[in-house]
Amino acid sequence: MKSFYPLLLLFFIFNLAFSQTPCENGFAGEYPCHGYDLLSNVPVSVLANGLGNPEGSDIWGWVDPLDGKEYAIVAMTNSTAFVDVTDPVNPIFLGRLDTATSTSYWRDVKVYNNHAFIVADNVGNHGMQVFDLTRLRNVGALPITFTADAHYTEFGSAHNIVINESTGYAYIVGTSRNGPFSGGPAFIDISTPTNPVNAGGYPDEGYSHDAQVVTYNGPDTEHAGKEIYIGSNESEVLILDVTDKNNVIKLAEISYSQLGYTHQGWFTDDHRYFILGDETDELSYGFNTRTLVFDLYDLDNPVLSSTYDGPTTAIDHNGYVLGNLFFLANYRAGLRVLDISNIAAPTDAMVEIGHFDTHPESNSTAFNGAWSVYPYLPSGNIIISDIERGLFVIKSNTLSTEDVQPIKSVAFAPNPATYQTKITSNKQAITSVEVYNTLGKRIFSVNNINQKEYVLPVKQFAKGLYLVNINNTFTKKLIVK
Questions:
Q1: Which of 396, 422, 440 represents a domain boundary (last residue)?
Q2: Mean of pLDDT values over 306-322
């Protein structure tokens, strides 16, 4: 079996090389888009190493503090996959960590102190797997089937894991309703990642499906510096002060009209607003994607500030805030990117400014397509997990078929090109040609040409978009197909 791995990897990388595709006329290849270009796609079958018939679920990212390399951590039904996306056009599948028990459609992962923490729902005594991400630096022959560095089993299944990185506590949500915390959050001290310590839990308000926990730095000065838990609890939003794990204080609960299933939400960066998604209201009431914004100026008395209606009937799933942008995994409608710079307004508080639809078949109301998104990589690249299609790496406004600057005196023919393109200058001689990929890496150069025509061989280039610099002065864009 080991002899098969290098062949699989070579096949995989070769096919990924054809993935970078600019968003032109509303499409990046087969994928509807606006403002976001496809850098690469890693299929589900590759992420699962060709085993079984898996699906994708959660996603998170990790940046190696030693060298700045970027990684996608993709949760699958049968495993957790690790992908080096430092070169987003040519990502490298490094290997996977198999499930601790059986397959699960709900596997979630978060990162703290260079370790991944993984839980799974409805799979018996899965507990929490802990994996040292620094092991990805030198993995040897690819791909690897990894083993966990620690396995915490003081709970069985769980729907999700939340980590407050500033305190070193993990909050396990969606545990067994018949367990010690009645489905409410379990608290675990992970300050030493491979030695998790039980720190109790909170059973008083029942099942908590998802949550965010922050060290509060918002406008309500009464709670400044406190550890605030905001949970999406199926039929309400629950706000807790969990600073003292032995004395949890309930601050508020939030309900709203036309409630389906209170699923997941995220604070704005200033901790003033909370953006909430209800997973089944589109199914139950027949309206378009609905996102609710709550004003938490007073944590003890939250109020509904505004409601955003999306352009499709697709179901909203996981959403995350980065500055003035809200990145929403919208199932069959793919990723939707909303400008929230006007979030205080009662109307038009959120405005869609871009999208990348990973499920081109339809935008209807069903559970397919984009499960989650991670927009926090320093490169600005965005990683998306799609249930059927695996990992997508996209980026805003990087690719185009327009020239960087007009060059009327220089022409390429053909462009797009397959085997070669002739560069022709009707004025000065061509002295040098350099070719760069979209990451700014030079992949080809030639000097001392001194002719008005030069045939550039492109057959050896991967399909995609390139920048061609002529005479260190002009740059044109070339598509290789």
A1: 396
A2: 97
